[in-house]
Amino acid sequence: MSRRLILGSLALLLLSSSAFGQRLANWTEGNGELGLGYPVPIPVDTPLPFDGFRTYAGLHSRHQDLMLQSDRVSGEVVGQSRNGREIWAYRLAASGDRTPEGLPRSAVFYTGGIHAREWQSPEVVTGLMERLVAGQGDHFLTDFVADHVNVVVLPVMNIDGFLQTQANPSRNWLETDNRNPQFWPRDGRMRRKNLRGTDGDFFTTGDHLAGVDLNRNNPPFWPGPPETGIQDDLTWRGPSAQSEPEIQAMLAAAGLAPADRLRFFADMHSYTSVFFSVHTSNLRRNAIQSRLFSTLSNHHAALPGNRVYVDSVSSIDVGIGTTSEYFGQLYQIPSATWEIEPGENGAVDYGGFGNNGHDGFILPESEIRRVRENLAETMLVAAYHMADPPHVAMAEVVDVATGAVVWSAHWDDAENEMRDFVNQSLAPLVPGRAYELWMAFSKPMRWRENGQVVPFPGRSASSINLNLWIESGNDVIAADFGPPEWLDQAGGAPNGYHRYRDDAFRIAFTISDAPETLAQIDEINAGEDGIHFTVLTSDLTGNLLDANPATRARWEDGAWADYDSASGSLDSGGADRSLELDLRVAAGDPGTEAVRGVHSAMWIDPDRGGEGWVIEVLPDGQAVGYWFTYDEEGHPRWLLGQGPVVANQIRFENLLAPVGGRFGPGFDPDEVELLPAGSARLVFSDCEQGWFDYRAFGQTQRLPLNRLTRGLGLDCGPSDVPPPDRAVQNGSWFDPDHAGEGYTVQWLDNGQVLVMWFSYDATGQQYWMLGQGESQAGDDRILLDNVLSARGARFGRAFDPQEVELFDWGSIEMQLGCETGSASYQSLLPEFGSGDFELLRLSYIDGLTTCPPGN
Predict the structure, then answer these.
(1) Mean pLDDT across the stretch 573-598?
(2) Is 339 a catalytic residue?
């Protein structure tokens, strides 16, 4: 044995037999005083999850990597530890700060690592981050939470103490604790507190009992029980409430939510598998919280390992200074100290010896992957549950025989606490006729395993029931409904989900045409009561529908506001009766006007001047649509769709965003890339108006459409007058050497021509121009001497017509025949310059397909 090793051994011997009686003790795999019965976990310096525990450096590296991998992860330094180490917090959510409906997001907050020895805690909080990033793009639970909830995490609060435990993964001191010196190991692997008043050196014997229990340092119940006033005690509360820099960092992290939008808080601890839930004098809040923890407990028990978490209810307005008490009392939200497994038997749960109760803080390495992944899901479910109660968002009825939309309704979210109900009846419903109802909700509603709808883990078989009927007042109208088909494919109505997988269903139905039903319908229509669908169901975690979507359910003063039920009970929901129908016995022709060539025009939402659609209905039952709009930064954007005409609908299942072409003589068609952007559907109520639904760039929306232009030779009513010769030029035109950009031409009924040019700028970004002109006297040239472009507005719900800036771009001259033509341009903007094209026709308009003689 070397001299250095001998001296080191003597030093350890002296330390373990000091005047204070303290002695060094080690956790071991074998049986003994601190025997575990399984290998002592040793942290590994890796960022990736594995069957074991990561070092703090590995965990921090993982957090930073996730922030680089995903645009849903943002982070910042929110404070410093007692020893000056940076404390990071992260927010996980979709970009922006609004839901797809345009409303402020709610928030949940998870903290980890407040007690240094509880290694499970930082792992499961990190696991939640990993789950949210890995699930990005699932169009289901993860995407819903990211769209509607700001998930804020502070993975390691007590960094100083955590590092000391990891530097001493097996050793600690015995016979030194002020309460139970022989049985309670302190410092090293069993350090709980921060490092206030210590030098952080495990072998410095005079200060290893120092430090503040960060989970006793919080109002409103600081200073807490008497023992927390003893500085050497395991639970010393600190010199004043929120005195510690780690707690100040937690408060700063809450600001990322922001704090006034919080709906749930949990401080992740170990061990005992318990929710130490905070109960306040707000009884409604307490009841909502109890239902939440019951839901989480049932769900977690159904996951691999079947671990049961118990809700341990505190006395009302009594506490000991915990973080969960602070958030529960101040913000009146469900809040808990969430104790991770094992249960109260500690290591015995995994076949351990159970020689010392502190072994529960040392989870076997073989268990942490399951614990991490299961709790990440359950923590995600908590965010889903508190995001908002479900409500009916949209519904429509299709006539099976014709494929036409005959009725449609939706709730349009406004900035305030109300929603606007938009009900569009295109044709009355008729008894005895076959229909299909499509209905969508505000969140994913059903769970699948192996492709089949099954109860959400932890819920009963009856939880997937859906009750649907037609009624007026208290009278049910006889109708035959088939089984509901929940939809997990994109596309929107009538065959796909709305925003998320299984947020919508479709169901076949026929209203009875029995004589007594016909008489009942006539009697109802003669009175003042309306007829409506009634639907009763619940979301994944058991929240019933908001019975009145007109008043937006929201968290307010520690309970749900305007979460309505038919019975008037609070915070529970019920059946929705908002979907009013036009049902008649003698309705005449139940059909609707089909889409045809006359619908080829420019269509706009009158409240959104500066964007719109150019629609071309083709002779083969197809249609082409060009949506000219703006991106999220206010630059021009255009989307292209081609799809079938189905009765009174045009369906663009795949909207494309062409990018990459560079304007001018250097244009290369091979550089053009058609990026998938979403889907859209246009529904026309008649020749003059309709609406369109879209799903694109993370948003969904329904907007009205009004006709802006009327094409030459295209009449809404019957006409025996042949179209003028030039009307056949209506359609799309392009230069084959510039495939990927082109023009749409519309000769209007006033003799003028409207041209849109869909192209790119010099950097490959999308660009569009618009010009209106007329043919020149004595020849067939078309002169557009005031071509405009636009910028400034934002895409989707952020669109504001006041932000649209129209500006002069230049001029275009065209000369068109029936199949070929030419175009030249002169821009006022130097980056565009001048040039010319040789054009070919790309599309014909239905009803305008015959070239005049000589063309």
Answers:
(1) 87
(2) yes
